[in-house]
Design a protein that fits this description.
Order of helices and strands: HHHHHH
Number of strands: 0
Number of helices: 6
Strand content: under 5%
Shape: elongated
Largest sheet: none
Helix content: 55-70%
Distance between the termini: 74 Å
Radius of gyration: 33 Å
Amino acid sequence: MHNDLRYDRVRAALPATLPPISRVEAERAARRIFRHFGSVTLGGPHMTHPAKFNGRVRRCWISKNPTGGHLKGWGRLIHDVSHSIFRRRHPNFRPHAGGHATLEAQIAAHVVSQGWLEGALLPKKSTLTSDQKREARLGEIEAAIKRWQTKQKRVANALRKLERRRRATLRALNLATGASISPSRAREVAHDADASAP
């Protein structure tokens, strides 16, 4: 590939020196490239399923230092992902068949145009002060307390309703039998009735 003139378009689409790339950037970039270029509508007649990212970030994609070429860092990520998508698009083609260079050049241009080489995929740093973070955390805790209090009220209401049903069942049982039974025995009968109810 180093001397293959077809890949001049890839080299022309990327800066000679590529910036460092973190694991987070690599994963986000790969996922977005697959989503953008992996559609079945963009593939050949034998492509029956979209090309999807499996979530695995290769170590050779990550680099703490600037890189060049396609052996490590951004260049390697673009090269590897383009092969995965090309293989899904054209399962009967050789890895470096004519269309692969075109696809890799398109992906390289997309990476540049999206600003990913300038850090667009890096996690945004929080600008909140320590007090603001504590206030936000306090708000989350108070919201959680309110949710649990609401659940507590629902439980209390349900218990009150059940207690009313139990007392009503005890009264009905005493009237039906015409006999006076002890409260403890009545509770046992009511409990058995509730247990057998559908």
